[in-house]
Amino acid sequence: MKSFLVSFFFVFSLFSKGQSLYIKTYGNEKNKTIIFIHGGPSGNATLFEGTTAQKLADQGFYVIAYDRRGEGRSTDSNAKFTYEEVFQDLNSIYAKYHLKKAVILGHSFGGLVATLYTHKYPQNVSALVLAGALFSQQETYDHILNTLKKKYSNDSEQLKKISIVENLNKNSAEYRKGCYELAGENGFFKMPKPTKASKKLYANYEAGEFYKTNIRNKNAPLLFYQNEKQNNIDTRPVLKKIKSAGVPIYGIYGKDDGIFSSDQINSLKAITGEKHFAFLDNCSHYLFVDQQVAFISKLKYWLK
């Protein structure tokens, strides 16, 4: 009840400032805090909340999930969709919940947010966890397009579609959208052999309350590319600086996540170190659902 009241107060207090940041907490506030940062831009934390947040809390963590300003359930027509804006909101969460340090868990695009925040505010972060997180955007785009060109080497229509995307401005929302749409159409985000457990998790989510609030702001990527100069970046140099500053970095990825090449994965593993990296079998982009037990077990092993 106390956690609910705190969350409600935070949402209400931001409404009074012309913002409406959705935030929800799970578990005992005395436990180690994990702040989950969802993908996007235009994403939300509903899948993580509807499947994993409470189960992670049950393992002895205080989990904070929220939707970034202007995305998902955090409606704000004045949102700028810049990294600096996200940092301000994260610092507001730290202040409202009286957090000195927290584990930052970044998924997909949220990994870029988490990395840049940790670099700017290392004193606030006890550990950085990259879960299927982006870290070298152009290499990801190149890998998607090159993989598909090989797959469709004898299909002129598909090659034409790929070529159209490939020739777009690489620092544009249209290019990003085109690459990920092609990846989605070709199953890059799906685990190859869904298990009974993963099927149940996805089915329960789609039948539950969180799926009903799976709100997507289609304008978010456009505004992000309009307002944020760092829109196609490689954060590996930043990750090295974070590690040198003494903040532990962990990486957990699915072996069947089609948006990352083996070279990318190996380069990240070289930064985190072998003991701080996990590569999950039969697992794609949404690893906290695809292989939830292994995902939670690895986080508990690392962070507890």
Would you write up a description of this structure?
It is a single chain. The chain is of the alpha/beta class and 304 residues long. It has a single domain, classed as Rossmann fold (3-Layer(aba) Sandwich), CATH 3.40.50. Helices cover 49% and strands 13% of the residues. It has 14 helices and 7 strands. It has a 7-stranded mixed β-sheet with strand order 1-3-2-4-5-6-7, sandwiched between helices. Helix 4 packs across helix 11 (236-244) and helix 5 packs across helix 7. The longest helix has 15 residues, at 137-151. The chain starts with a helix and ends with a helix. The relative contact order is 0.15. Keywords: Hydrolase. InterPro entries: AB_hydrolase_1 (IPR000073), AB_hydrolase_fold (IPR029058), AB_hydrolase_sf (IPR050266), Peptidase_S33 (IPR002410). Belongs to the peptidase S33 family. It comes from Flavobacterium chungangensis. Residues 33-290 form the AB hydrolase-1 domain.
CATH-defined architecture = 3-Layer(aba) Sandwich
Provide a count of the helices. 14
Major beta sheet, specifics? 7 strands, mixed
Low-confidence segments, given as residue ranges, are: 1-18
CATH fold label: Rossmann fold
Sheet/helix structural class: alpha/beta
Order of helices and strands: HEEHEHEHEHHHHHHHEHEHH
The Cα radius of gyration reads 19 Å
For the record, the count of structural domains works out to 1
Mean pLDDT: 94
Number of strands: 7
* CATH top-level class: Alpha Beta
Helix content: 40-55%
Strand order of the largest sheet: 1-3-2-4-5-6-7
CATH superfamily: Alpha/Beta hydrolase fold, catalytic domain
Q: What's the end-to-end separation, in Å?
A: 25 Å
Classify the beta-strand content into a percent band: 5-15%
Rough outline: globular
Protein name: Alpha/beta fold hydrolase
Keywords: Hydrolase
Domain AB hydrolase-1: 33-290
Family: Belongs to the peptidase S33 family.
